[in-house]
Structures are given as structure tokens and as C-alpha cells.
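User: Hey, quick favor. My workstation is busy. Could you predict this chain's structure for me?
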Amino acid sequence: MSSQNNREILGILGGIGPLASAAFLKTIYEYTLGEREQDSPIALLYSDPTFPDRTQVLLAGEEEELLEQLIQSLKRMSSFGVAKIVICCITSHHLFARYPLEIREKLISLIDVTLNRVIQSQKQHLLVCTKGTRRLEIFQKHPLWEKAKDYLVLPQGEDIQNIHDVIYQIKQNVDLEMLVPVFEDLLEKYQVESFVAGCTEIHLFSKYFSGHHTPYSSVDPLIIIAEKLAANQLFSLESVK
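Assistant: No problem, here it is.
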């Protein structure tokens, strides 16, 4: 696939989970559509829900099958001529260092995007992520963590599992209205008015809160990427090394 008029193509590895990556593609066009749809970004969504559960296999130390499937999917996407790739699963970022260099050169890290915005914000946010991301310390092991940690509130105790359960209910397409009270209670408990979408399923909550005029805001890497696409800044972002 060649890009029209030499325009760069954004690749999206989705299906992990399917609703989050589909919502991300919709977000891209909500942020970038102008008077002419022909001027909108070119995006390729490769949605494959057959990947094994990332939290389950990574915490069990059984990551080889997942890694191989990710690499094969990323190579397949690269063959379509994408310039940059977003993997719509933050827990899978644990494996970034094991990808071949030619793949890493195309990847946009959602952790990079998130922590840079957190540092810029100079305010506190509740880190909302899977128990896999939390136990693997995917955010904490990032080079920007030391600069960002004072602005991140980490859920404790049973709240880690409760958040994980909410994320998996989103995956199952449970009505968000049913989950909002649980989410709002967490934000009130930790005395914050903002949260980090540390799992791509939480993108659906970010969009819900922004559309319902609530007092809560978010740092959502998928929204940030859509904003950068709209500003013609995305393809100049530094890739994973």
C-alpha cells in the first residue's frame, strides 16, 4: 500500500482490546476532520483480538507466544508502508525492548506520551491501569518516572484489583453509566480531579467524562496522539529506541 500523494500512514495495532482501538480510530477523525475529508489522516487499523491476555501471560512469565504474535503483526503492518505505529495496549509495552530495531524505529510509546504530558501538567493524577501494568512497574521503570512520580497517585490495596475489574468490564462492553460511580468514588477517595488513562480501555472513560461536562479530566495518550495528528506534529515524534 503506498500513501496517497506521499502522505505518511499511521498504523494502529488493535484488538487488544477491540473496543479501545476502534474508539481510538474514531477519536482520530473527531479531532482531525476539517472541511474536506480528503485532508484527513491516513490510518490503518489492524484489529486482532486473538492475542493472549497480556496481564495473564506476562505475570506468569509466559510471554514468548505473545511476543512472537506481536512481532509478526507489527511486521505485517510495516509491509503496508506505515510510518509510525501505535500499539493499543499499555501492558504490552513491557515487551518493547525485545522488538527488532526496524520495528522499534516505527513505534510511538504510549508511556512516553503519557509521562511527558504528566510532567507538563504540574498537577496530580490517579494512575488507572491493569494489575499487570502495575505489578510489572511499566510506568515506574520508564526513564521519565523520576520527573513524573510526584504528579502520579498510585491506587493501593484492593483498589488495584477493583480498577482491573472495571477495565475488564469495559472490555466486555458493559454500559459505562454503570461503571461511572465506581470510577468517581476512586477519584474522590484519592482526592484528585484527574486520572491517567494507563490502559487503553480507559480511553472510553476519558471520552465519557469530556462529553458529560464533569469536573474530572484525564491524561489520555490516545487523545494526545489525536491532538498531535491534528496539529501535524505526530510523525516528528521520537520513536522507541
